[in-house]
Amino acid sequence: MSIKKALTVAGSDSGGGAGIQADLKTFQELGVYGMSVLTALTAQNTTGVYGVHPVPPEFVAQQMDAVLSDLGTNAVKTGMLFDSAIIETVARKLKEYGVPNYVLDPVMVAKGGAPLLLQEAVDAMKEHLLPLAMVVTPNLPEAELLTGMEKIETHEQMREAARILHEWGAQNVVIKGGHSTGDFATDLLYDGREFVELSAARFHTEHTHGTGCTFAAAITAGLASGKTVREAVEQAKQFITAAISHPLGIGHGHGPTNHWAYRAKER
Ligand SMILES: Nc1ncnc2c1ncn2[C@@H]1O[C@H](COP(=O)(O)OP(=O)(O)O)[C@@H](O)[C@H]1O
Ligand SMILES: Cc1ncc(COP(=O)(O)O)c(N)n1
């Protein structure tokens, strides 16, 4: 059996719940070999982001060269990219190495409100990364910022946003419904032909730190393992639902999800 590999290009969350740390834990749980390129360090815990220290773009490029020229990868995801210089560097390297199965998680703001992407970088993300994406996974506020739609609340508005992002070059779009209200957390997958809704019971919990990172990392791991986009997204939904449903109860704020829960359930 050949080892399947996945690369995350993202920021570090010192608290371990989101960012690079969430991604690597998810890769490990889903049986793929995890690699990482850091774009920024954050001084962060469950109560907030206390500092951001971006990595110089040249060093992001050097990390990508180191990983891709030697190990290669079966899939890649990007998370926090911070500014347009880092975005342009990452896009250039993804193209240079012809990296397959690229998942774009358009991380913009931390749950507590700290910016993880400068405003000037939104256009760069649309121009340089969206057209490379096999899957893009915005939450509702991110979908609003990317599309310019004033409000995305209803199912029809979610469909409209998905159509726009597909038209702009993403092969598949998942609009995540975590930020809406109601008894279900419903995400919408669009592949340019049909819409598929993925629904799970909404848990009334504060402990959703890192849900978006974990969900996108699970999609990436699925694609690395050879699953179709539909299969990878369905598995990711099960993974994140299990992770949210068994919170660890650590920290004094928005605690991390439980990356062990999915495999524990499988056993
Ligand atoms: N309270 C919740 N209960 C169940 N699922 C949730 C809850 N909050 C988020 N999710 C799910 O977690 C995943 C990440 O969604 P979301 O929280 O919207 O992303 P982000 O972390 O980027 O803001 C989605 O599949 C979403 O439906
Ligand atoms: C380094 C880093 N990257 C991403 C997030 C977003 O986390 P979430 O998945 O909760 O939106 C974060 N808080 N920190």
Automatic annotation (TrEMBL):
Gene3D superfamilies: 3.40.1190.20
Pyridoxamine kinase/Phosphomethylpyrimidine kinase domain boundaries: 13-258
Swiss-Prot/TrEMBL GO biological process terms: thiamine biosynthetic process
Superkingdom per UniProt: Bacteria
EC number: 2.7.1.49, 2.7.4.7
CDD domains reported in the protein's UniProt record: HMPP_kinase
Catalytically driven reaction(s): 4-amino-2-methyl-5-(phosphooxymethyl)pyrimidine + ATP = 4-amino-2-methyl-5-(diphosphooxymethyl)pyrimidine + ADP; 4-amino-5-hydroxymethyl-2-methylpyrimidine + ATP = 4-amino-2-methyl-5-(phosphooxymethyl)pyrimidine + ADP + H(+)
InterPro entries (alphabetical): HMP/HMP-P_kinase_dom, PM/HMP-P_kinase-1, Ribokinase-like
Keyword entries, A-Z: ATP-binding, Kinase, Nucleotide-binding, Thiamine biosynthesis, Transferase
Single Gene Ontology MF annotation: phosphomethylpyrimidine kinase activity
GO CC annotations on file: cytosol
Pathway note: Cofactor biosynthesis; thiamine diphosphate biosynthesis; 4-amino-2-methyl-5-diphosphomethylpyrimidine from 5-amino-1-(5-phospho-D-ribosyl)imidazole: step 3/3; Cofactor biosynthesis; thiamine diphosphate biosynthesis; 4-amino-2-methyl-5-diphosphomethylpyrimidine from 5-amino-1-(5-phospho-D-ribosyl)imidazole: step 2/3
Similarity annotation: Belongs to the ThiD family.
Family annotation (PANTHER family): HYDROXYMETHYLPYRIMIDINE_PHOSPHOMETHYLPYRIMIDINE KINASE THI20-RELATED (PTHR20858:SF17), PHOSPHOMETHYLPYRIMIDINE KINASE (PTHR20858)
Protein name stated in the entry: Hydroxymethylpyrimidine/phosphomethylpyrimidine kinase
Native source species: Aneurinibacillus danicus
